[in-house]
């Protein structure tokens, strides 16, 4: 007997016997559903035998037999009705448990998100990929999928998606390309740090999506619900299906605000802010200007996150403002970092550490934010230092800048494209999927061990475009990504430590040292961030002009 729990209400199991009933009752189950027809196997006990033993143990039963491979909409409805009528928790079984898991999935499709259903069943050991379209369709068999087909489908219209679409158009002008993204507005997210520091206006970081979609590229304004790579298909919300010859996955990542108890309820008030949201970055600047004394807490969650330097960028620009206005001595700055180092590439740490000392910031490593009480102005952290028993500490604050926990989007995390950690599983050099050869990925959602930054996407887009073009021509990948990422660390207003690095922390400077020494704070790097990079983003990167982004050639084997 094997219990495979899906939720607190339902557990599924392979075939059980009457002898298993006492253990089932002892485990706390109050009802049993049989989804296996009698006589399906020669060694199979009949349902009457199971039901009699269950009655003796005080358990209710239902017999809802389903032939293997023939789970109908009506059967799923009957299963849902039984779940509502029976006392829980319920154990459902068939030969392997798959039919029971499928019935549950379809019965809950009308009120649970597809990704949640796929995640829960996957956690129990069942792959619902075969019925994903029915799940997306509210548990019903689609009558008209309304398929559209393109040579290349790009999931995501952010920095990576628009850039790769433009690079593909330049190389494959006759290819039919579509971008799938439900958003109306495209944001220059690297600018939000500057908004929170009072340098940029928020509106300067936003443009309409329609104005940025490359000419000749189709825009399907819809969210993705699931992937069917075995069918070369993407399933959209509403169960529309888009077919592809080649797929590019770059929807960005998910900011998991709900993972911190109480955070969502207090964001944007009670002194709680974040530069990771367009509407909150101006509130950061409001809080910084208004704070004359008290405690300012800045948090950083476990990796990976996009722009790993952003949490401390907020700290530096805030500290610089308080320093320039003569109130720094009255502000207690606390940096709460879930990791164990200030920055992942050691060459940049000395310069950054000197600014932490300048602003009198206390460095608290292995501190992960788990709860916020906004009205009480208290933040709780789980402290998990190596070789020590984890504990929780609560800190009072006057201002709290939060960097939220981050994961791959739900529809990616539960898909066949994901690795065990939920990220799209690619070759780190060619950015081609390790299993599905007509799938590529770039940007924050894939699992290459590089920094998740817009600068990284700028380098990745030509690599993916070049390799897809080679695939169109019947060749092998010919471009290689070296892991380049850039993090302009705004250590004060007017100076930046320009961190540029690749795989393994190798330094990859774009400029000669006499112009910009990336390991030191420079005025030139600030001018690059403030005046040059925004137009490069809007007018070059998103338009397929690959300035300083020529792909490296794959080494011959």
From TrEMBL:
Residues 89-130 form the Rhodanese domain. GO terms for biological process: sulfide oxidation, using sulfide:quinone oxidoreductase. Pfam families: BLH_phosphatase, Pyr_redox_2. Keywords: FAD, Flavoprotein, Oxidoreductase, Quinone, Transit peptide. The keyword Flavoprotein applies. Its cofactor is FAD. One of its GO terms (molecular function) is hydrolase activity. The keyword Flavoprotein applies. This is NAD(FAD)-dependent dehydrogenase. It comes from Pseudoponticoccus marisrubri. The lineage of its organism: Bacteria, Pseudomonadati, Pseudomonadota, Alphaproteobacteria, Rhodobacterales.
């Amino acid at each position: 007997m094997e219990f495979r729990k899906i939720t607190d209400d339902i557990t599924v199991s392979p075939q059980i016997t009457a002898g298993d009933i006492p253990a089932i009752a002892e485990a706390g189950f109050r009802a049993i559903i049989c989804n296996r027809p009698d006589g399906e196997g020669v060694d199979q006990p009949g349902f009457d035998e199971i039901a009699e033993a269950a009655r003796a143990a005080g358990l209710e039963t239902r017999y809802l037999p389903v032939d293997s491979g023939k789970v109908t909409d009506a059967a799923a409805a009957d299963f849902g009705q039984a779940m509502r009528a029976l006392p829980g928790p319920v154990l459902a079984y068939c030969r392997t448990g798959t039919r029971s898991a499928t019935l549950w999935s379809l019965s809950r499709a009308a009120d649970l998100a597809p990704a949640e259903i796929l995640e829960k069943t996957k956690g129990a050991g069942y792959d619902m990929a075969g019925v994903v379209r029915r799940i997306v369709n509210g548990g019903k068999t689609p009558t008209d999928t309304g398929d559209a087909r393109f040579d290349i489908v790009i999931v995501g219209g952010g920095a990576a998606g628009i850039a790769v679409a433009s690079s593909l158009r330049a190389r494959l002008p006759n290819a039919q390309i579509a971008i799938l993204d439900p958003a109306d507005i495209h944001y220059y997210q690297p600018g939000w740090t500057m908004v929170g520091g009072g340098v940029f206006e928020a509106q300067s970081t936003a443009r309409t999506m329609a104005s940025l979609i490359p000419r000749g590229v189709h825009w399907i304004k819809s969210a993705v619900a699931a992937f069917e790579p075995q069918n070369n298909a993407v399933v959209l919300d509403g169960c529309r299906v888009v077919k592809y010859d080649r797929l590019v996955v770059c929807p960005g990542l998910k900011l998991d605000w709900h993972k911190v108890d109480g955070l969502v309820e207090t964001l944007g008030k009670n002194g709680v802010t974040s530069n990771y949201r367009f509407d909150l970055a101006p509130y950061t600047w409001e809080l910084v200007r208004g704070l004359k004394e008290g405690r300012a807490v800045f948090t950083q969650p476990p990796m990976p996150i996009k722009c790993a330097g952003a949490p401390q960028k907020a700290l530096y620009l805030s500290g610089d403002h308080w320093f320039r206005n003569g109130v720094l001595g009255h502000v207690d700055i606390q940096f709460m970092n879930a990791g164990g180092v200030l920055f992942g590439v050691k060459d940049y740490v000395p310069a950054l550490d000197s600014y932490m000392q300048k602003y009198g910031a206390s460095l608290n490593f292995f501190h992960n934010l788990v709860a916020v009480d906004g009205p009480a102005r208290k933040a709780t952290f789980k402290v998990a230092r190596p070789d020590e028993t984890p504990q929780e500490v609560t800190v009072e604050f006057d201002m709290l800048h939060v960097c939220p926990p981050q994961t791959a989007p739900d529809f990616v995390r539960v898909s066949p494209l994901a690795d065990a950690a939920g990220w799209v599983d690619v070759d780190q050099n060619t950015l081609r999927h390790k299993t599905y050869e007509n799938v590529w990925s770039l940007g924050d959602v894939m699992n290459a061990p590089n920094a998740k930054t817009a600068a990284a996407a700028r380098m990745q887009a030509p690599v993916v475009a070049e390799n897809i073009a080679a695939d169109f021509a019947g060749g092998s990948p010919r471009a290689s990504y070296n892991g380049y990422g850039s993090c302009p660390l705004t250590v004060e207003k007017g100076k930046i430590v320009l961190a540029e690095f690749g795989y393994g922390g190798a330094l990859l400077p774009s400029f000669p040292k006499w112009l910009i020494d990336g390991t030191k704070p420079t005025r030139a790097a600030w001018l690059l961030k403030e005046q040059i990079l925004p137009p490069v983003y809007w007018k070059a990167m998103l338009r397929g002009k690959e300035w300083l982004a020529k792909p490296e050639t794959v080494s011959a084997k």
